[in-house]
Specification:
The protein has 20 helices and 14 strands. By secondary structure, the chain is an alpha/beta fold. It has a domain of about 325 residues: Alpha/Beta hydrolase fold, catalytic domain (Rossmann fold, 3-Layer(aba) Sandwich). A hairpin with a 5-residue loop joins strand 5 and strand 6. The structure holds 2-acetamido-2-deoxy-beta-D-glucopyranose (NAG) (2 copies).
Length: about 500
């Protein structure tokens, strides 16, 4: 690769950090920068996941046939569903499918589509799990899907599944994740352009397959690293609509749960959040934040389309996170109320056990494709994307009336509410002043305070009580209420009403 001046500058920054004689910076080396491959592996082990492959790149025997239809979808019923009523496959409306990605060499994207338990008129919602490189089936079975997995691997209906109010899609992406695969390594994605183009092409094919759903409202949702995917996909869909590229997708809004969207602001919030929550003392906080100016400069160099500078920023800035973690001991960084036992922070191993059963794989029609719960290769391939700022495309969407909800469980450290609240408030758009001036009102579910809401016009921020990184797992009922009210445009209304009531008493 030809060296450019930003390359030198970022290497210089890195050297500056590593060679700095400041004792404070040297102290940081107690938590030396981790290699990305080590970070990715650690992430997966902490969730008790053991995928057989680092990515789903398959042999030539699985090559695509040019003549095959773009979408192959089947209605299915999971075996082992605890279902005393004996609902038929037709009534269920559960589909599993593969989409042959149009702008790829040989890639197929796997998805689940669950028809709404209420009405086919309900909005269409797409859910994207983060990682980068983790399968959306993580959310399907542990957060907001129609079922949860019991310990004996039976499926139990989820009373608060998001399919109660929406026709919901769970997509395995970027390519190589979950059951999605390719036989050509050139299909591995490295940035949000690759990710959002693939998802846009998928949506076009999906609505072509289900034309009656194209007129429904459409919402993009997800979590964690999807704080990058979601704004990128929203912008891609909006662009496609404006240019009349294909089927009009009735995009009404996008919602980011405990996401990473604006790294410069969010990395600046780590030490503050950790100190507020009693994980760091003031002096530890100050010492760790000495690296912040270097991190911020590195992120600025990365911008929205840097390359090597973005990798340098990842390495520099993540010393902040690893330093906090080195002091926090075995605190679970997805939920600081919890401890990681040994190397285990959560145990999501049942999703692998469940999906690797012969009967389940047969029902889904995945053949001998491996289930890659989280892909280390996809994680590493997206490294250049990590520090890019995805906030920049959002104001234009808000100004065209597309709604954004940013929500965050209050006990998550890794994508904490403080950093999210800060970037949402700092975002410059026509309604910024009014948003910033809006009062914080309680978000109530069943008469109890489930969170704190700030909203104005199309923009809402919700701090969710009693929840960590995975809000729908920790607060299933409140999260379903949140989705429903937000889609109906009632998120702020109900709470504003009770707010005025309280203040007039
Ligand atoms: C499996 O667990 C579920 C939920 O705990 C229970 O309802 C069901 O009866 C169990 N099934 C078997 C076969 O033990
Ligand atoms: C169920 O669907 C109907 C018809 O589309 C809609 O009016 C109603 O609000 C939905 N109910 C819920 C709980 O979402």
């Amino acid at each position: 690769m030809k060296a450019s001046s930003p390359t030198f500058l970022s290497l210089f920054l890195l050297l500056l950090l590593l060679l700095s004689p400041l004792p404070s910076v040297v102290a940081l080396l107690r938590a030396p920068p981790r290699l990305p491959s080590v970070s990715a592996e650690k992430l997966i082990r902490e969730l008790n996941l053991f995928p057989n492959q680092p990515i789903n790149i398959v042999g030539d025997s699985n090559r695509l046939h040019a003549a095959a239809p773009r979408i192959v979808e089947r209605r299915f019923k999971f075996p082992n569903v605890i279902d005393p009523r004996g609902v038929s496959v037709e009534e269920l409306g559960h589909h599993a499918g593969y989409y042959q990605i149009e702008h790829s060499h040989a890639a197929r994207m796997f998805y689940f589509f669950f028809e709404s338990r209420n009405s086919s008129e309900d909005p269409v919602v797409i859910w994207l799990t983060g990682g980068p490189g983790c399968s959306s089936e993580m959310a399907l079975f542990y957060e907001n899907g129609p079922f949860t997995i019991a310990n004996n691997l039976s499926l139990v209906w989820n009373e608060y599944g998001w399919d109660k109010v929406s026709n919901i899609l769970y997509v395995d992406q970027p390519i190589g994740t979950g059951f999605s695969y390719s036989s050509d390594r050139r299909d591995i994605r490295h940035d949000e352009k690759g990710v959002s183009d693939d998802l846009y092409d998928f949506l076009q094919a999906f609505f072509k397959e289900h034309p009656h759903l194209a007129k429904n409202d459409f919402y993009i949702t997800g979590e964690s690293y999807a704080g990058h995917y979601i704004p990128a996909l929203a912008a891609r869909v909006h662009q496609g609509n404006k240019a009349k590229e294909g089927i009009h997708v009735n995009l009404k809004g996008f919602a980011i749960g405990n996401g990473l969207t604006d790294p410069a602001i969010q990395y600046g919030a780590y030490a503050d959040y950790a100190m507020d929550m009693g994980i760091l003392t003031q002096s530890e906080h100050d010492r760790i934040n000495k690296v912040l100016p270097v991190c911020e400069t590195a992120i600025k160099l990365c911008g929205t389309d840097g390359t090597i500078s973005c990798v340098a920023a990842y390495i520099v800035c993540n010393t902040i996170f690893s330093s906090i973690f080195a002091r926090a001991g075995n605190v679970n960084y997805y939920d600081i109320r919890k401890k990681c036992e040994g190397s285990l922070c959560y145990d999501f191993s049942n999703v692998e056990k469940f999906l690797n059963q012969k009967s389940v794989r047969g029902a889904l029609g995945v053949g001998d494709i491996e289930f890659v719960s989280c892909s280390t290769t996809v994680y590493e391939a997206m490294l250049v994307d990590w520090m890019r700022n995805l906030e920049v495309g959002i104001p234009a969407l808000l100004e065209d009336g597309i709604k954004l909800l940013v929500y965050a469980g209050e006990y998550d450290l890794i994508c904490n509410w403080l950093g999210n609240s800060r970037w949402v408030h700092a975002m410059e758009w026509r309604g910024q002043k009014a948003f910033v001036a809006s009062p914080e009102v309680p978000f109530e579910v069943d008469g109890a305070k489930a969170g704190l809401l700030t909203s104005h016009g199309p923009l809402s921020f919700l701090k969710v009580h009693d929840a960590g990184h995975m809000v729908p797992m920790d607060q299933p009922k409140a999260s379903l209420e949140m989705l429903k009210r937000w889609m109906e445009g009632l998120l702020s209304k109900s709470t504003t009403d009770s707010g005025t009531l309280v203040s007039s008493i």
